[in-house]
Amino acid sequence: MKRCLICNTYYDLQRNCPSCGAFPAKLGGFDAYAPDLAYGGGGFKPSYFAELARLEESNFWFCARNKIILWALKKYAPRFTSFLEIGCGTGYVLSGVAKNFPNASLQGSEIFVEGLSFASQRLPCVNLMQMDARAIPFCEEFDVVGAFDVLEHIKEDDVVLREIHRALKPQGIIILTVPQHTWLWSAADEYACHERRYASNEILSKVKAAGFYALKSTSFITTLLPAMMASRFSKKHVGEKYDLTAELKISPILNFTFARILDLEISAIKLGINLPVGGSRLVVCQKI
Ligand SMILES: [Zn+2]
């Protein structure tokens, strides 16, 4: 069902709210549910999208994260038919989901219209919308909702989790990835407009508080944690000029090596091992 953000009426299919007549704006060809935030919503630098779109397809980190997300979908929601990604950016994750689940109905949302423009080039068959994750215009609509390295950009992450809970069908699945360990905070997090890095149990506690039951919680980017610490702590000082994309522009040999190392830890996660430390955390939970 859709949910009217003006009068909170639930309704199906039609574009206009049957109660108050409200309907989403159109920006750049996309339905826009929070048009005031579409170009200056904060929490991210839209200029970063072009660089991301160029780098993420071959970069070890984005490839490894996609493998983990696709594994989680296959294991915990093997028969899902509807999926919403919040903060879909340039659509790299959605493109992997589309290839692996060709019959599923996929939707992607992003607060910045600029990201949606890149995503629509990758994903001509996916429904994309501009939306504020703190006000999701759906109720019991999706089998799975994912947000991958998104919550750390939003001050009111607890609000977002409650909105996702309402947007999921009963027993629906939430899949999240977040940056982990407060002690890893560095200039890279400031550059990326992060509100926080999560302590080990913090994200799971917040998801449970929003009404979910935990199915899986594990660190990842564990084996590369020493390399990550070396990179981050060499430029830790606040205000120091920092180029996050420099971390992504590594040599092809190093990129290949890091990818194979991460394949080993992905194998461990697939075997059921929950890794205690790592640059990121994966959480999979079910709506109670
Ligand atoms: Zn209404």
Note down, in words, how this protein is organized.
The strands form 2 sheets. This protein has a 9-stranded mixed sheet with strand order 3-4-7-6-5-8-9-11-10, with helices on both faces. A two-stranded antiparallel ribbon has the order 1-2. The radius of gyration is 18 Å and the shape is globular. 35% of the residues lie in helices and 21% in strands. The protein has 288 residues and is α/β, with parallel strands linked by helices. Strand 8, helix 5 (157-167) and strand 9 form a beta-alpha-beta unit. The chain is built from 10 helices and 11 strands. The longest helix has 19 residues, at 252-270. The protein has helices at residues 48-55, 60-76, 92-100, 113-122, 157-167, 187-191, 202-209, 225-233, 245-248, 252-270; strands spanning 2-3, 10-11, 25-27, 30-32, 82-86, 105-110, 127-130, 142-148, 168-179, 212-220, 280-287. Helix 2 (60-76) runs parallel beside helix 10 (252-270). Zinc ion binds next to loops. Zinc ion is lined by residues 4, 6-7, 9, 17, 19-20, 22.
